[in-house]
């Protein structure tokens, strides 16, 4: 049975999408729109990368970035984190949520059904808003994406492909369409905030 947290954020926005669809970009832009005094970004991958950096003597800042450095270690991090999730599906979600201090929490890297399950069970469905960000392979390739076996064909990229219970689906392909996408995200957050 789920235990719903009495404290914590009033609204939790779960962002999901394939690599190079623009999740981090939209999360950062949404944060600025909502104000860092009111909202914050939480990344489920941060505890994974922190452990990996400490264990392997790597640069945490570079692992948290969006460059080639992170890509060199991505497959190994995925394999290690999958093994941890087999023991406890919520281990990284729980670790990431220890930093939540604002009334709106933007989770920028939801990748698995168990991630959605963790937030639903921990905070209750009324606080959650789920968003799928989509972009074609052609657009993602233009942003630097290249298919990588063991990365793009495993649960960390594919587990939510057949999930259909999104509150909002956004197509992020046009640079001049970002403001409209942000308007829709803000509207989703504000309606949830009013209902909370």
TrEMBL record:
Binding positions for substrate per the UniProt entry: 172
EC number from the UniProt entry: 2.7.4.2
This protein's GO CC annotations: cytosol
GO molecular function, one term: phosphomevalonate kinase activity
Alphabetized InterPro entries for the sequence: P-loop_NTPase, Pmev_kin_anim
Keyword ATP-binding in record: yes
Binding, ATP: 18-24, 143
Top-rank lineage group of the source organism: Eukaryota
Subcellular location: Cytoplasm, Cytosol
PANTHER family per record: PHOSPHOMEVALONATE KINASE (PTHR13101:SF1)
Record's protein name: Phosphomevalonate kinase
Organism: Anopheles epiroticus
């Amino acid at each position: 049975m789920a235990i719903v947290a009495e404290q914590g954020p009033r609204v939790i926005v779960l962002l999901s999408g394939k690599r190079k669809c623009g999740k981090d970009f939209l999360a950062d832009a949404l944060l600025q729109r909502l104000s860092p005094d009111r909202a914050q970004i939480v990344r489920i991958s941060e505890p994974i990368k922190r452990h990996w950096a400490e264990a392997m003597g790597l640069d945490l800042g570079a692992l948290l970035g969006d460059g080639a450095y992170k890509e060199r270690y991505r497959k190994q991090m995925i394999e290690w984190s999958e093994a941890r999730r087999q023991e406890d599906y919520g281990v990284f979600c729980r670790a990431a949520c220890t930093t939540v201090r604002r009334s709106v929490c933007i989770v920028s890297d939801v990748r698995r059904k168990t991630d959605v399950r963790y937030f639903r069970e921990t905070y209750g469905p009324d606080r959650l808003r789920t968003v799928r960000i989509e972009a074609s392979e052609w657009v993602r390739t233009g942003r630097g994406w290249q298919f990588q076996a063991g990365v793009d064909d495993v649960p960390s990229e594919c587990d939510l492909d057949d999930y259909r219970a999104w509150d909002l689906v956004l197509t992020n392909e046009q640079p001049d369409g970002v403001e409209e996408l942000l308007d829709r995200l803000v509207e989703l957050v504000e309606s949830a905030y009013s209902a909370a």
